[in-house]
Amino acid sequence: MDLAAYYQSALDDLLAFSEAWRRSILERPAATYSIERGIATALVEWNNPYYDDAYLRDAKTLNSLVEKLEAQGVTIFFYEMPYSPILNQTRYTIMVRKALEEVFGLNNNKWLNLEYPADELRWSGDGAHLDMRSALIIASALSNATSKIRN
């Protein structure tokens, strides 16, 4: 009995610490980073036509996996990870969106509508990966979107 009480106490403390930590990060102002050099490097790769054929093939493979998982009772949802505005207009992002639209359609019930303050998002040096604060904003948006589905 004492071990169970200790475990629950430790878990409660961890959850309280985690929530306080999350709040402290979200309450900070959005940082500014110099990501121009990282984006310049990424632009070369993200605009490379070499991968064009792979996008549709990968989307079809993803569809096959989704069908198998759903047949097992797993619920699948999609969302689009936000990229920096410059990378968001690259060949890669445009081609991936087209491939996913062709295979899944954009108006199906699998796509989550994430609501978040886009102007608050910041990316790491490569312009593709969110900083910690922005990742928490997106995680909160995911949580809100999925909780609306559950309710």
Give a verbal description of the structure.
The chain has helices at 2-26, 36-46, 52-71, 91-104, 132-150. With 151 residues, it is mainly α. Helix 3 crosses helix 4 (91-104).
Which descriptors would you attach to this protein?
single chain, 5 helices, 59% helix, mainly alpha, 151 residues
Report mean pLDDT, rounded to a whole number.
Answer: 84
Unreliable spans: none
By secondary-structure content and strand pairing, the structural class works out as: mainly alpha
Shape: flat
In total, the number of strands is 0
Rg (CA only): 19 Å
In short:
This protein is mainly alpha-helical. The protein is built from 5 helices and no strands.
Topology:
Blueprint: H1 2-26, H2 36-46, H3 52-71, H4 91-104, H5 132-150
